[in-house]
Amino acid sequence: MQKGEGMPKTKKSGKPKKDELPSTVKRSSKKAQRTFAKAYDAAVDEYDGNEERAHRVAYSALKQKYARVGKKWKRKDKKGPSDSRSEGGSGGKTHEGVDAKATKDKLLKTARRLGIKGRSAMRKPELVEAIKKENKRETDAARRKN
């Protein structure tokens, strides 16, 4: 591929192309969509059209300000990496967009919003895993619906 040959995620106006965005990003705020699309386009240019790497960069940029809650991305209270893998770049365990560094109270509120049963008896790592599992379930259901 030639430099910049990957499929752009933004229009000439700078707005994201919704049909080019991942489903969880499509269901998110316009700001989250712009963040993903602009990071993706910049990474395609930077990494000579490598779309896989551009997707990783775009998700990394999105995870700095947003956490995945259910089938979409919601703004985090505090900017920064959501897990050790986001922090270091490689290795470590990913939590698939769940803000594993959030307080237990914040995780409990997210679990309540998602309707996770038994959440009050869970420790923080168990809450993160339960939220991750429920996010995946909701996303899969939304994809089957479309």
UniProtKB/TrEMBL annotation:
It comes from the Bacteria. One of its GO terms (biological process) is DNA-templated transcription termination. Signal peptide: none annotated. Residues 93-108, 123-146 have a biased composition (Basic and acidic residues). Pfam families: ChaB, Rho_N. Residues 106-135 form the Rho termination factor-like N-terminal domain. Residues 1-35, 63-146 are annotated as: Disordered. Residues 65-78, 109-122 have a biased composition (Basic residues). InterPro entries: ChaB, ChaB_sf, Rho-like_N. This is ChaB family protein. The lineage of its organism: Bacteria, Bacillati, Actinomycetota, Actinomycetes, Mycobacteriales.
